[in-house]
Amino acid sequence: MQEIEVKYRLRDLPALEQSLAERGLVLSAPITQDDQAYARVDWSYGQSKIGVPFARLRTQDGRHLFTVKTPLVNELACLEHESEVADRDQMHQAIIQMGFRPTVRIVKTRRTAQMAGMELCVDEVEHAGLFLEIEKVLDAGESGAVAQERLDAFARSLGVELERTADTYDSLVRAALV
Q1: Record's superkingdom (predicted)?
Q2: 65: part of which helix (H) or strand (E)?
Q3: Does residue 142 register a pLDDT over 90?
Q4: Angle CA(31)–CA(34)–CA(40) in degrees, nearest 5?
Q5: pTM for the full predicted model
Q6: How far is CA 14 from CA 71, 72, 105, 151, in A?
């Protein structure tokens, strides 16, 4: 499946919550996501991510999810495969054995709302700040870039101060820590 997203630094959470409420949306209770990001051993920050597979191991509510994302047209439009795994430590070792190395740990508190096939996520990311991320799974043949333009238009229609970023959370956290 192709998952696309747009991401924004969020400056005024109460204004966003008010705008969502005006559309009949309420953010969910917060959940914590503990993600370990992985890159191939021959890739390093500063190189293009397009066409390069990246792995993630997430723990949320006692469940462990293994994800591989390959950016297609940009870092936020990816071919994605995800599956639950029973043992985080064993999966970590398997990922390393497959030729990946751990890059950064991303810990965030997430609240979500669903609307018209979109998932709106408000994320408080340790070391990086507060973000609004809007995700959508595309139908076969749909353009990621065109879908991102539609998601951006929706985000702008919310009428709150947003600063768009093309960076992924691993890049944002890494930049904050170096």
Answers
A1: Bacteria
A2: strand 63-74
A3: no
A4: 145
A5: 0.92
A6: 32, 34, 28, 21
Helical residues (DSSP H) of 9-134, grouped into ranges: 13-22, 88-97
In terms of Cβ atoms closer than 10 Å to its own Cβ (0-12, 13-18, 19+), residue 49 is buried
Bridge partner list, 96: none
159 sits in the region (left: phi over 0; alpha: psi -120 to 50; else beta) called left
Highest CATH level, class, for 2-177: mainly beta
Bridge partner residues of 172 (DSSP): none
CA distance readout (Å), 175 to 9, 45, 123: 15, 10, 17
What is the number of other CB atoms lying within 10 angstroms of the CB of residue 80? Answer: 14
Length of the chain: 178
Q: Is the pLDDT of residue 102 over 80?
A: yes
- Domain locations along the chain: 2-177
Inter-residue contact 66 to 90 (CB < 8 Å): no
